[in-house]
């Protein structure tokens, strides 16, 4: 079966076919997906533009009901969706199911938010005049997502867009059309009017570009790499449209001498290597104080030796494959770069063979690194982490903040003083104490600073900043 695009309420053939391949087993074709071109993207945008007239006036309950039905079906089918996710992206099955649950929970949250779109009525400074402040939907929103959270990221953009009354044109990443299509299929059966939600699978240069350039698209929420994000933002800003970018990270995890060793090792191994290190919030720089350094490095090495890298769907697998050949090449090239820069590769960093042909890689840990090395400055986006030794807390904070990124950061310590100080001084948008840098709640703001993010925050009630426009009305009754 060819999985088609959803344009103006109709399942529509594309101009080419994308074969979705399982990174754990390259002989396994997950499915065939239609690829649209720019013209089809424009048809979808036109349909969304037309549908906005009525969807923007739908009652909060109508919108809430649609989101609630999507949430209920996603949660009921969490095992099947989680399995599809693991098969096409390479997260382990528990991680895949966890992400499907998260997507369902996000729709539940925004089903509630749709009913809570309030306003303010305040006295004017002019006698007898009343002032009302309300929020209105923006119009057509373009949603462009990466491959690494193929159901959660689409969910946390689509759900608020629809909840606040916008219409959506959604383009998933080429590597993971399956989860995007499955979510679109659920949304299509939720009672949503034709054209309110459109799925347009295809390349960034064709479909992505058409979304970004169309004057009918009022805003684009983008998650992906820094290079693409900057290009997307430049085009949108040039035509005065709204833009929200979530991009890369080089997230620091500080481990102080007074840390609980088990907690620190657990948080670092999870944060750096789970989901194959392919998380924008992954702890890629472990900044470790000299008193605990050797014990910490030994313990992480022991833990890594116990982790099973294998087929994402196999019971007992801790780390699945890298997502693609390109990503694997990038990860392995950074291992070479690290070696040439003088870092010591303590463990891992090589390609692995398993029963099925896949992109398996042993998690790599570099020690004796300095923060000016490329492996500490550039996002690798794979199972590669570094250790930077520091003498004290002050040096740790300075190094943690010395990065062009600012998504997430963490500290492992039993000192309330240092934990509080770090929360205040960290230049990241999210700060974790005794917890991995990756792994966040779905009902609170998500996002970073500096080179990691641009525009209003995603998720939780803060999402309304991007998906609505404020109106101030004055009345002399
Ligand atoms: P990418 O930038 O290659 O692609 C992201 C999306 O943009 C894809 O759908 C792609 O098709 C599309 N695209 C490509 N060129 C385009 C263009 N010219 N115009 C419009 N759209 C275009 O990123 P990726 O490789 O899919 O994802 C990995 C990156 O995503 C990493 O850098 C990672 O840090 C980042 N990421 C960030 C967050 C976050 O919230 N900060 C979360 C997950 C992933």
Polypeptide structure, described:
It is a single chain. With 477 residues, the protein is an alpha/beta fold. It folds into two domains: 270 residues, Aldehyde Dehydrogenase, Chain A, domain 1 (3-Layer(aba) Sandwich); 183 residues, 3-Layer(aba) Sandwich (Aldehyde Dehydrogenase, Chain A, domain 2), CATH 3.40.309.10. The chain is built from 15 helices and 23 strands. The protein has a seven-stranded mixed β-sheet with strand order 15-18-19-14-13-20-21, with helices on both faces. It has a six-stranded mixed β-sheet with strand order 10-9-8-11-12-22, sandwiched between helices. A three-stranded mixed β-sheet has the order 1-5-4, covered by helices on one side. The longest helix has 21 residues. The radius of gyration is 23 Å and the shape is globular. The structure holds nicotinamide-adenine-dinucleotide. The site of nicotinamide-adenine-dinucleotide (NAD) has 29 residues, from helix 7 and helix 8.
Question: Could you give the topology of this structure?
Answer:
Blueprint: E1 2-3, E2 5-7, E3 10-12, E4 16-22, E5 25-35, H1 38-55, H2 60-76, H3 78-89, H4 93-113, E6 120-123, E7 130-137, E8 140-144, H5 152-163, E9 167-171, H6 177-188, E10 197-199, H7 204-213, E11 217-223, H8 226-238, E12 242-246, E13 251-255, H9 261-273, E14 283-289, H10 290-306, H11 325-340, E15 344-347, E16 351-352, E17 360-361, E18 364-367, H12 374-377, E19 384-390, H13 393-401, E20 408-412, H14 416-425, E21 430-433, E22 453-454, H15 464-467, E23 468-475
Parallel strand pairs: 1-5, 8-9, 8-11, 9-10, 11-12, 13-14, 13-20, 14-19, 18-19, 20-21
Antiparallel strand pairs: 2-3, 4-5, 6-7, 7-23, 12-22, 15-18, 16-17
Helix pairs in contact: 1-7, 2-4, 3-4, 4-5, 9-10
The structure holds nicotinamide-adenine-dinucleotide (NAD).
